[in-house]
């Protein structure tokens, strides 16, 4: 995802992104919960009903507690990373057993080389509103040939394992390697990875034995799905375990991929032979290519899809239950769609205000849904 305002402002202008327009009244609205420094994501530990954690691109994680933003950050890794453009603190995930283990994981761009780092931390045993800075443990690292397409999503799946989204290595057109990284099983770039992030003997993490390419010679065993350009957020439906992956496009198409629980295992989402449902690289193959269930065109103002979450907040009413909420950095419209195997239906605006520089979504421990603007505001979707 392109995150710097000047970068995407130019893209938006070139694409003819529509100006803000009045939208129809709806049964829901966006309620402001605070202003932050380049917020990208919202999360909370499982079952935590009192706190909301906001990820800021520059390297801090802030807590909203009792409706108030705490002065002291939960975590500050700004000295460890490089931020700007598509780099920075990009992801956060709390372990399923966080209440006991206090383990959580962050995804950031390392200061020394811009490479991806997945690092484990623990919350302080004496103060749950502060992380123990000395508990840092490097889990996984991946070099990045370019400063863009870092991916960023971190999610624990219904199987209790950690899923990591990485972009194709950056530049344009996936030009690294003999035929790009997206289709190459020898690299982790352009992939969704699946690991058990807990230390395993002398190894920093374990590779699940049922990962799809564990036994294939020359393949990175961590790979779960491939053929991605720059996944900007993935989400599991907390009710079904289904998986949605939003993948930022090249010049023409933004795409949304969907799979029923477990069905993304070994899936090839087509990049770079395909951008969305159309050919990008003629003559190149994408074995078993799974086309997106939804695509949006730059000619309609879209420039960088912002993947969302599944709505399971019962307070929003039965009509929105199970719908997937998402948007785009340039268009700024919050949308909902019903996702099914192989198709998407009832794609429409949620009917709330336009969000400038729409950068992310998230949920808290009560299942309430949040929307972030890179410009600073964070909102909660409410009735």
UniProtKB/TrEMBL annotation:
<dbReference type="Pfam" id="PF07995">
    <property type="entry name" value="GSDH"/>
</dbReference>
<dbReference type="InterPro" id="IPR011041">
    <property type="entry name" value="Quinoprot_gluc/sorb_DH_b-prop"/>
</dbReference>
<feature type="domain" description="Glucose/Sorbosone dehydrogenase">
    <location>
        <begin position="37"/>
        <end position="371"/>
    </location>
</feature>
<dbReference type="InterPro" id="IPR011042">
    <property type="entry name" value="6-blade_b-propeller_TolB-like"/>
</dbReference>
<protein>
    <submittedName>
        <fullName>PQQ-dependent sugar dehydrogenase</fullName>
    </submittedName>
</protein>
<dbReference type="InterPro" id="IPR012938">
    <property type="entry name" value="Glc/Sorbosone_DH"/>
</dbReference>
């Amino acid at each position: 995802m392109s995150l710097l305002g000047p970068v995407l402002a130019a893209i938006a202008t070139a694409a003819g992104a529509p100006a803000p327009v009045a939208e129809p009244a709806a049964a829901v609205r966006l309620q402001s919960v605070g202003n932050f420094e380049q917020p990208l994501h919202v999360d909370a530990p499982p079952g935590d009903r009192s706190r909301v954690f906001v990820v800021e691109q520059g390297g801090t994680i802030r807590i909203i507690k009792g409706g108030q933003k705490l002065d002291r950050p939960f975590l500050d890794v700004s000295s460890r990373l490089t931020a700007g453009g598509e780099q920075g603190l990009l992801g956060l995930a709390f372990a399923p057993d966080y209440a006991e283990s206090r383990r959580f994981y962050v995804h950031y761009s390392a200061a020394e080389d811009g490479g991806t780092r997945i690092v484990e931390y623990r919350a302080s045993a004496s103060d749950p509103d502060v992380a123990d800075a000395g508990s840092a443990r490097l889990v996984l690292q991946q070099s990045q040939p370019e400063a863009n397409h870092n991916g960023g999503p971190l999610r624990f799946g219904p199987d209790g394992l950690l899923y990591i989204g990485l972009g194709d290595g950056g530049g344009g057109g996936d030009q690294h390697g003999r035929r790009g990284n997206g289709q190459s099983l020898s690299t982790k770039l352009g992939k969704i990875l699946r690991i058990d992030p807990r230390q395993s003997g002398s190894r920093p993490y374990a590779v699940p034995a049922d990962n799809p390419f564990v036994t294939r010679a020359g393949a990175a065993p961590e790979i779960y799905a491939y053929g991605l350009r720059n996944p900007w957020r993935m989400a599991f439906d907390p009710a079904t375990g289904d998986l949605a992956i939003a993948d930022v496009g090249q010049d023409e198409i933004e795409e949304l991929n969907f799979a029923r629980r477990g069905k993304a295992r070994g899936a090839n989402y087509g990049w770079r032979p395909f951008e969305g449902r159309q050919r990008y690289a003629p003559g190149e193959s994408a074995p078993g290519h799974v086309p997106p269930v939804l695509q949006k065109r730059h000619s309609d103002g879209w420039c960088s899809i912002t993947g969302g979450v599944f709505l399971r907040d019962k307070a929003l009413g039965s009509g929105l239950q199970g719908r997937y909420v998402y948007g785009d950095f340039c268009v700024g419209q919050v949308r909902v769609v019903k996702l099914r195997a192989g198709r998407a239906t009832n794609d429409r605006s949620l009917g709330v205000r336009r969000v400038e520089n729409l950068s992310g979504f998230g949920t808290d421990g009560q299942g309430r849904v949040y929307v972030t603007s890179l410009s600073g505001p964070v909102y909660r979707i409410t009735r």
